From TrEMBL:
GO terms for molecular function: alkaline phosphatase activity; metal ion binding; phosphoglycolate phosphatase activity. The active site is at 33 (nucleophile), 35 (proton donor). Keywords: Hydrolase, Magnesium, Metal-binding. It comes from Penicillium vulpinum. It is an enzyme of class 3 (hydrolase). The keyword Metal-binding applies. This is 4-nitrophenylphosphatase. Divalent metal ions. Mg(2+) is the most effective.
Length: 325
């Protein structure tokens, strides 16, 4: 909600050594958004987008900035809405980019959704299966919580709808509609199709809980935007006239689990991100002491300065924090 936003103009900290120092001193914990996907042409016509990296391109100064924070005793947590990866995948990615991290420091929307399903939802014994729209990250995290699932990357769902399918779905045929499905979980799916939407719709109509890993409308890639996870649940929202419970930023269910795990003082924590309506909103509605926007990602300066979700401060790029030294 816009009224949750900081109505004060955010402080521009690039090049402001004293301001940077003062800002950093206020916090013990930094929650970092990370992503930005493959900048195929990043160095030419399309600028890379992200916070720490864009695709396989690590932004200069990222490692040093994280090191600076750690050397000053700050706890670092990586919080990503990208459900296509698991925490283990993310750790590998961070390691590959030269960023030291542990799986424990990573919070992904795939993980957040899995713990919500296994530890919060009270599903009847015969309705414990999850129908997944999404990629391997979700599957890995569901497995780690021992949650049974169908769909996901199963090639059987990557096909056109046949005339028989319509009849079988209408008749509730168990070869297409598994009676044990009690949850539909929708994340970013690079193989989205009509069959997957139809099955998800019918599971929810039959009583399954409607969940989304996250509701980002778009996904940054190659310096521009592509359909995001929210665009996967959009057709279902339209069909059902019903919103899913979303488990990624800005959902406070995710903030509560992060706080539960790291036991931090919210007033001494700062969310760093590039998107106003997920990252910054997440920090504002979570009543964190600070939010820091970076201009290397989705949001423009105008959005940070006068949009609905304004960070407390913003920088041209993350590594500007190095000027605090
Ligand atoms: O559509 C999506 O899933 C998101 O755009 C994307 O994955 C965001 O990831 P984040 O910036 O939170 O790391
Ligand atoms: Mg981002």
């Amino acid at each position: 909600m816009a009224q949750e936003s900081s109505q004060v103009a955010p402080r521009y900290l690039t090049g402001d050594k004293a301001g940077l120092r003062e800002f950093l001193d206020k916090f013990d914990v930094f929650l970092f958004d990370c992503d930005g996907l493959s900048p195929v042409l990043a160095l030419s016509a399309f600028p890379p987008r992200g916070v720490l990296w864009s695709g396989d391109l690590l932004f200069p100064g990222t490692v040093e900035t994280l090191e600076l924070l750690r050397n000053n005793g700050k706890q670092v947590v990586f919080v990503t809405n990208n459900s296509t990866k698991s925490r283990a995948d993310y750790r590998k990615k961070l390691e590959g980019l030269g960023i030291p991290s542990t799986v424990e420091e990573i919070f992904s929307s795939s993980y957040s959704s899995s713990i919500y399903i296994s530890r919060i939802l009270q599903l009847p014994e015969n309705k414990r299966k999850v129908y997944v729209i999404g990629e391997t990250g979700i599957e890995q995290e569901l497995r780690s919580e021992n949650v049974p699932f169908i769909g996901g990357t199963d090639p059987a769902y990557r096909r056109d709808v046949t005339p028989e399918d319509y009849k079988k779905i209408a008749a509730g045929d168990e070869s297409l509609l598994d009676p044990e499905v009690g949850v539909v979980l929708v994340g970013l799916d690079f193989h989205m199709n009509y069959l997957k939407i139809a099955l998800a719709y019918h599971y929810i109509k039959r009583g399954a809980v409607f969940l989304a890993t996250n509701i980002d409308s778009t996904l940054p890639n190659s310096g521009t935007l592509f359909p995001g996870a929210g665009s996967m649940s959009a057709p279902l929202i339209m069909m059902l006239n019903k919103e899913p419970v979303a488990l990624g930023k800005p959902s406070q269910a995710m903030m509560d689990s992060i706080e539960g795990k790291f036991k931090f003082d919210r007033s001494r924590a700062c969310m760093v991100g590039d998107r106003a309506n997920t990252d910054i909103r997440f920090g504002l509605e979570g009543k964190l002491g600070g939010t820091l926007g970076v201009l290397t990602g989705v949001a423009s300066k105008e959005e940070f300065v006068s949009g609905d979700y304004r960070p407390h401060a913003y920088l041209d790029k993350l590594s500007d924090l190095l000027d605090s030294e």
